[in-house]
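Example 3.2
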Amino acid sequence: MIAKIISFSAHNKFLVILLALAAIIGSFYAIQKMPLDALPDLSDTQVIIVAKWNQPPGVLEDQVAYPIVAALLGAPRVRAIRATTEFGISLVYVVFQNGTNLYWARSRVLEYLSKIIPSLPKGVKTAMGPDATSLGWVYQYALVDDSKKLNLSQLRALQDWHIRYQLQSVPGVAEVAAIGGYQKEYQVKINPRKLWGYHIPLTRVLKAVSKSNSEAGGGTIEFSGREFMVLGKGYLKGIKDIEEIPLGRDAKTGTPILVKDVAQVALGPARRRGVGELNGLGDAVSGIVIIRSGENTLNIINRVKEKIKEILPSLPPGVRFVPTYDRSELISRSIRTLKETLF
């Protein structure tokens, strides 16, 4: 067999050269498209289900986590199901057999989840975690305000409503999670005596506040050959808007009863979200970039860095990015070590 191969190669030199060139071109193309990472992904194929409900862990475990776990037990290729519950949130981890395609697993979970969602208690919000693995955390940054003009609440708002959406638009990024900072909230502190004096139940105040924060469309009207849209502005923008929400009329005088007549509205202490010290920066707002499964880690990190350069001019004066974790450095060193060893 060896003699025949040598003879064939000697009599077909041009064909052998073409095949060698094709192999070189194919190898070069494969190197360009090869996913590069410094760490092997040995994690299981798993899908995370997030269920949120403002209830104690025991109630959340019995009425939400248990029904979801029971419904997913019959899903194909499922190896194990685990659930953890805290106040207001429950996480269900569905682990599939080795070799299962992640997106096939997500579609199966979504199929079984759609059957159980209608039977869950009212107010439960369920969602699936990002299509990433445990090694998807590839880049992290902190927002630092050198001018000291922005507090942690404003930095968190900048991260949630400006930076996050731009970084999520980078191809290959599955999610940009935020850690730290404060989230602003308004508190309506009811005065029970005033509420009883107006004979207004507490449920009416709750419904009035929740329904007042919305827009309403009223259709269109024609005037002088033109068509005008009718829109009811209803979004709450501050304390005064909440105070002016009507609750009804006084039975004796007929005057409107407003929220400010029975309650005190104030900007409450914002909820702290995992504030921690980052590399000596103190309390800061941090963003975590998580990539999709199977993506080229090095390329995506470079794209994220390019996007950050585009975002910098639009940030408030004094605000800057401080990288706190960058896996591309480890990948580059690993590639350099491999090249030196091969040479």
